[in-house]
Amino acid sequence: QVQLVESGGGWVQAGGSLRLTCAASGITFSTSNMAWFRQAPGKEREAVAATRWSDGATYYVDSVQGRFTISRDNSKNTLFLQMNSLKPDDTAVYHCATTPGLISRTTYYRPERYNSWGQGTQVTVSS
Question: Among candidates 3, 101, 104, which has minimal Cα distance to 50?
Fold first, then answer.
């Protein structure tokens, strides 16, 4: 049974930083493609970043490029999202997701590509 558990969310002022963690179990983490998505109230779920296991490629949505960094520790089955220079627009519930399938620059942002999701962690950025 796949289980993804996010942590590290919270409240922060604009310009601050948070580090999100996703602990994975029930999958072969080292050969799983992983991603972070977020969903703000009244908005659709959107991709934030993804990492491809085969070559270490990383992808970011334009709005977080240069501010967020996705990384993984295969020895601990853990995915991270370092978020710096946070803005009020980053306020959302952040979910990690996984897929054993392929991802690329043109597919990583599609929620339907991922077959398992965590419950999410709330990030609130005040102005």
Answer: 104
